Amino acid sequence: MRKIKSGLKNMRGVYHLNNKMQIVYIDHNIITAFFLQNHPFHKQAVGDIALFLKFKDHYVCSISAVFESIKELVSSLAKIKESNLLPPQYEIEKQVISQVNSLLKKLNIKILYVNNQQIFSHALSLQLEFNIHFDIAFYTALLQEQKIKIIATYDERYNKLFSEGVLTKYQPKSMPERK
To answer: For the domain that residue 165 is a member of, what is the CATH number?
Structure first.
């Protein structure tokens, strides 16, 4: 591959001219891990969020993934509430939504909406072709519809899609310094 002087090389060896920003899909598990201190990827999520802020690529997330994250966070906090350590349910939901919304704004994450009713049949075909779970197939179909190939995720169920070249895993820690 010919080296381009004005470009940056990313973890896959692809050069980006003029520091062009990538479009990166942020999976719900990164948002969830960031807020839950007992999540197995919490420390990594905190570091990754800091790198996302530093690199300032174009970040997107689907409305479904934001909902999944809020649902998981509320559920986690509701379990703590049962021991009478937290305020009523609606206060928990209000606080979680506010914090998630604040993170989305801080990272300047744009929300993707499904605008193609054929996405479900596309997801089913991906599910059959790659023998993957429907939720992974759905988000992959959504990304393909939006022509997004890079995803930041901790979900190992995407590994088959990474190995097949369908998606690329975003790994900011392995990327060079950007100026």
So the answer is: 3.40.50
Residue-level pLDDT at 79: 76
* Number of domains observed in the structure of the chain: 1
Whether the pLDDT of residue 124 is over 70: the answer is yes
Which of 49, 159, 25 minimizes the C-alpha distance to 100? 49
91 is in which domain, residue-wise? 23-114+148-174
Tell me whether residue 9 is in a domain. Answer: no
Give residue-wise pLDDT tens across range 138-158.
Answer: 999 999 999 999 999 999 999
Q: How confident is the model at residue 114 (pLDDT cuts 50, 70, 90)?
A: confident
Average predicted confidence (pLDDT) for the chain:
83
Closest CA to 119 of 93, 147, 95, 138: 138
Mean of pLDDT values over 101-115: 92
